[in-house]
Design goal:
- The chain is an alpha/beta fold.
- It folds into two domains: 197 residues, Metallo-dependent phosphatases (Purple Acid Phosphatase, chain A, domain 2); 52 residues, no CATH class.
- Helix content is 38%, strand content 18%.
- The radius of gyration is 18 Å and the shape is globular.
- It starts with a strand and ends with a helix.
- Bound molecules: fe (ii) ion (2 copies).
- The site of one fe (ii) ion has 6 residues, from loops.
Length: 264
C-alpha cells in the first residue's frame, strides 16, 4: 500500500500542479489531502476545485474553517484578517458548505491522518510538546502511526510506541527549502514515510504575488511574499511580536509590519 499525503497547499497552484505531476510517477494507490488547501496565496479557489476533482479523501484544516466562519465569527472583521476575507470572497456558498462538511480524520489500518491533532484543527506539535501533551492530543485514538500537517516543518515525534509525523507544507514550506513538499507513506510490515521535494515554478508563484494582490489582501501580504521567497516563517513571528500592541491600538498594523520588516 502506497499513499501520497499532501498538506497545506494554501492556494499555491504552481506547487500543487508540480506535486500532482510528481505523484503520477510514484505508483501510489491513493492520494490524501490533509487540509489547509486554501488561503494565503492567490489561487485558493483553483486549488480547492483541483483537489476536489481528484475524488480522493480531502480533510478539513483550520484555514477551511476560517473560510466558512467569515461573516459568522466577528473575529474575522479585524484588519489583520483581510487576507482571509479576500480568499473567502473567491468561493461560492456551495463551496463553503463543502469545506464545512469535509472530514477531520481519515484512517487506514494502523494509520491516522489529520490536519493538526485528533481533537483540534489548529493545535501545534513542536519539539517542546511533551509525551503527556501528545497523549492528550491523540486520546481516544489507537493507531500507532499518525500523519498530520499544520506546522509547515518536517518533524517526527515518538511516545508510547506511537509515532506522529508532521509534514512540510506543499505550498508554503517554512523549513528553509523552496521546493513543493509532500510525503509518500508505504505499508510493508509497518508504515514508513518518504519525504518528497519537488522543484516547481517559484518565479511564476512570486509573479502571482503582485503588488495588486498585496494591495487587495493588505500589508500582511508582504510577510506572505517573504515566506514564499525564503521558505522561512515570518507571519507567526510578526504576530507573536506585534499582535498585542496592534490589538491595543498602540501601533497600526501597517506601521507594525514596516517596523518588523526593517528589523529582520
Ligand atoms: Fe497550514
Ligand atoms: Fe493549519
Amino acid at each position: 500500500m502506497r499513499i501520497a499525503i499532501v498538506s497545506d497547499i494554501h492556494g499555491n497552484l504552481h506547487a500543487l500542479e508540480a506535486i500532482l505531476e510528481d505523484i503520477q510517477n510514484q505508483a501510489v494507490d491513493e492520494i490524501v489531502i490533509a487540509g489547509d488547501v486554501v488561503n494565503q496565496y492567490p489561487h485558493s479557489r483553483q486549488c480547492f476545485e483541483m483537489v476536489m476533482a481528484l475524488n480522493c479523501p480531502v480533510l478539513q484544516g483550520n484555514h477551511e474553517e476560517y473560510m466558512y466562519s467569515v461573516g459568522i465569527n466577528q473575529l474575522f472583521d479585524q484588519a489583520r484578517f483581510q487576507p482571509i476575507r479576500w480568499t473567502h470572497a473567491q468561493f461560492s456558498q456551495t463551496q463553503l458548505e463543502t469545506m464545512q462538511a469535509l472530514p477531520r480524520v481519515y484512517r487506514y489500518p494502523d494509520l491516522l491522518i489529520t490536519h493538526a491533532t485528533a481533537r483540534s484543527l489548529s493545535e501545534s506539535i513542536t519539539l517542546d510538546s511533551s509525551a503527556d501533551d501528545l497523549r492528550a492530543m491523540f486520546a481516544d485514538t489507537t493507531e500507532p502511526f499518525i500523519v498530520r500537517g499544520h506546522n509547515h516543518k518536517w518533524l517526527t515525534r515518538n511516545w508510547d510506541n506511537r509515532t506522529v509525523y508532521t509534514l512540510e507544507s506543499a505550498g508554503v514550506p517554512l523549513g528553509g527549502r523552496l521546493e513543493a513538499q509532500y510525503a509518500i507513506l508505504t505499508k510493508r510490515s509497518v508504515w514508513s514515510l518518504e519525504p518528497r521535494f519537488v522543484p516547481y515554478n517559484l518565479e511564476a508563484a512570486l509573479a502571482d504575488f503582485s503588488d495588486t494582490y498585496i494591495s487587495e489582501i493588505g500589508v500582511l501580504g508582504h510577510l506572505l511574499r517573504l515566506e514564499l521567497l525564503t521558505g522561512k516563517g515570518y507571519l507567526n513571528r510578526f504576530l507573536q511580536q506585534y499582535l498585542q500592541a496592534v490589538d491595543a491600538n498602540q501601533i497600526s498594523l501597517e506601521n507594525a509590519v514596516q517596523v518588523f520588516l526593517q528589523s529582520t
